[in-house]
Design brief:
This protein is an alpha/beta fold. It has five helices and 21 strands.
Length: 297
């Protein structure tokens, strides 16, 4: 009898330890379903430490990572596509309903009204990322390093404010992202000890660029291909109110989105050059297959 009780207790403790043990998980998901897909994979949101996501997500899934995954340390979103979303449940807790752009780390992604996600130590951004919105990583004091893809051309105000644990920032673009309109992107980051890594040919550009120049050590030790080479040979430029897309493969669909993720244009190309006429000034996203480019008119 005592032996049976001992075995029962041992099994109970083993199951209990297994149930609460932190896990590493890789999951494919669709927008708004990250929480359900992790649980369907047999994991407890509260115990996941290392997370790799594939598929498509939106701002609601950032809310899941921020609020429900209490000990989450590392996130790999390298092959993820971030979709636009308009509605409730997104990361911006200041609004009941809000519109979030595609291909952007949404505002307040990893910070609440009271604190940042202090458990987070690293994140690999999507290869298609275009923008990091305001306060996205504010007060993520455990974050030690970030690598900003060459595809990113906007970082909004306070994006990495109070990230006091940062020791390495890698900026992959040969042209420094213009931060003139983005206040205090790296506010309270220890720029005397945090090293800024930049492409080998871009040292002088970063040394003279607003906010980037504040890093005491700027190391030009990155050798990367530029986004137009690594993603596609497609070229996008504007002439007055016309967007011109060159070197497109005939038969590919060309799409135009506004910053709210609304599709404004979608047509199949019939030659290697296409034109889109714009009626309103603003910021737009051109997408051709896996290629995406942000333009301003």
């Amino acid at each position: 009898m005592k032996k049976s009780i001992s075995i029962f207790i041992l099994l109970f403790i083993t199951n209990l330890i297994f149930a609460i043990s932190p896990v590493t998980i890789s999951v494919s998901t669709t927008p708004g379903n990250l929480s359900a897909d992790i649980q369907n994979a047999g994991a407890d949101l509260k115990t996941v430490i290392n997370l790799t996501v594939t598929g498509n997500i939106d701002s609601r899934d950032f809310t899941t990572m921020r609020d429900s995954m209490l000990v989450l340390k590392t996130i790999d979103l390298s092959t993820v596509t971030i979709d636009a979303y308009s509605g409730t449940g997104g990361s911006n807790y200041n609004y009941a309903s809000y519109s979030y752009a595609a291909n952007a780390i949404p505002g307040y992604a990893f910070v609440t009204a009271t604190s940042g996600k202090e458990s987070l130590t690293s994140i690999i951004f999507p290869e298609s990322l275009l923008e990091i919105e305001s306060l996205a990583f504010s007060s993520c004091t455990g974050l030690t390093s970030i690598s900003i893809p060459a595809t990113v051309n906007i970082i909004q105000a306070y994006a990495f404010m109070y990230c006091t644990g940062l020791s390495s920032v890698s900026a992959q673009s040969t042209t420094p992202i213009n931060l003139d309109l983005s206040m205090h992107v790296f506010y309270d980051v220890d720029k005397n000890n945090c090293v800024l890594h930049v492409p080998s040919t871009s040292l002088a550009a970063y040394q003279s660029a607003n906010q980037w120049m504040d890093f005491f050590t700027i190391s030009n030790d990155i050798t990367t291909k530029q986004k137009e080479v690594s993603i596609s040979n497609i070229k996008v430029f504007t002439n007055k109110n016309t967007v011109i897309i060159k070197d497109v493969t005939a038969g590919e669909y060309i799409e135009l989105f506004n910053m709210q993720g609304t599709s404004l244009y979608k047509k199949k190309s019939f030659s290697n050059i296409s034109h889109i006429n714009l009626t309103d000034r603003g910021i737009y996203i051109i997408k051709v297959g896996s290629f995406s480019e942000k333009i301003m008119y």
